[in-house]
Amino acid sequence: MSGDPLCPLCLRPIPPDAPQSLHHLVPRLKGGKGGPVVLLHALCHKEIHAALSEAELARNYATIEALRAHPRLLRFIAWVARRPPGFVSRVPGGRRARQR
User: Fold this and answer.
1) pTM for the full model?
2) Of residues 96 and 14, more confidently modeled
3) What's the confidence (pLDDT) of residue 2?
4) Which of 65, 76, 79, 100 is the least crowded, having the fewest Cβ atoms under 10 Å away?
5) d(CA 41, CA 19)
6) Quick one: 100 exposed, middle or buried, by C-beta within 10 A (0-12, 13-18, 19+)?
7) What is the pLDDT of residue 93?
8) Furthest C-alpha separation in the chain
9) Cα(68)–Cα(84) distance, rounded to whole angstroms?
10) Cα distance between residue 87 and residue 80, in whole Å
């Protein structure tokens, strides 16, 4: 397991059989196509998009450090840190309310 990549959001290993996905640090729709991507647990990736809009991601959360400092993601990281690396679940807490 020590050779598994680390999820930069939760800092847990990503086992080869765990659901995983690539996150564009700047959303593709906001100019991030071809830009930097990071490998995350699928659960961590889903939580990022449940917590933040594409515009918020592009404007204020285009780095792992900024994502890790977001209040909802801080709570999520504390929660998921107690789970095994291959843990799979629905995203807790539901999607954020969309601004109209």
Assistant:
1) 0.85
2) 14
3) 58
4) 100
5) 6
6) exposed
7) 56
8) 45
9) 19
10) 8
Instruction: Give the model confidence (pLDDT) of 54-87 as tens digits.
Output: 999 999 999 999 999 999 999 999 999 999 988 9
Q: At what angle do helices 42-51 and 71-80 cross, to 10 degrees?
A: 160
Secondary structure of residue 23 in the 3-state scheme: strand
Residue 80 has a CB neighbour count (10 Å cut-off) of: 23
- Name every residue whose Cβ is closer than 8 Å to that of residue 90 and which is 6 or more positions away in sequence: none
- The residue ranges of DSSP E strands in 1-100, in sequence order, are 20-24, 37-41
Question: What is the C-alpha separation between 25 and 16, in angstroms, rounded?
Answer: 22
Sketch the domain layout of the chain as residue ranges: 20-80
What the block records as the tokens of 68 is: 């890790």
CB 64, CB 77: distance < 8 Å: no
